[in-house]
């Protein structure tokens, strides 16, 4: 039976609120995955900081143009941004185009966010690909956080608090990342690794 009049209007409004709420959660998770502030995302997307804040709090219904700008800044397809969690299949596949990429300041190390975007506030994992000599400097994460780097190819070293440790193919390094830390690809060959970050403080909240 078709919904008419006021009932139809209410149904449309309810649907818009659900979609907007899912959008807000997705934008916030992606922004945190990139370690972006509201101001930084606003600068990269051209969307006002106040609007992004309202979207994340589900206080506004953004235009398609706004959603497109945010999806471009967050390096994810617009249909992925708009997808509803209730409609996701039990087995979920992400394409290469839907996988956000972080790049080190020197441009030599790329981290593909391969973890579930819904867990980025407490669990993150990345596919790391690095050129020889690549350096990734990271700020402190939440207190008690731990990072694990498992080397698949090449050789890496990690420096935390003045302590340096190296790992080759098949070896892993686990270290506190609640202080500034640096990951380097050493040697003459490219490197590849899986990095997992457990944000303990976020779990305890």
UniProtKB/TrEMBL annotation:
The keyword Plastid does not apply. It holds the Pfam family Cupin_2. Keywords: DNA-binding, Transcription, Transcription regulation. Residues 27-81 form the HTH cro/C1-type domain. GO terms for cellular component: cytosol. GO terms for molecular function: DNA binding; DNA-binding transcription factor activity. It comes from the Bacteria. InterPro entries: Cro/C1-type_HTH, Cupin_2, Lambda_DNA-bd_dom_sf, RmlC-like_jellyroll, RmlC_Cupin_sf, TransReg_Diox_bact_type. The keyword DNA-binding applies. Gene3D superfamilies: Jelly Rolls, lambda repressor-like DNA-binding domains. This is Transcriptional regulator with XRE-family HTH domain.
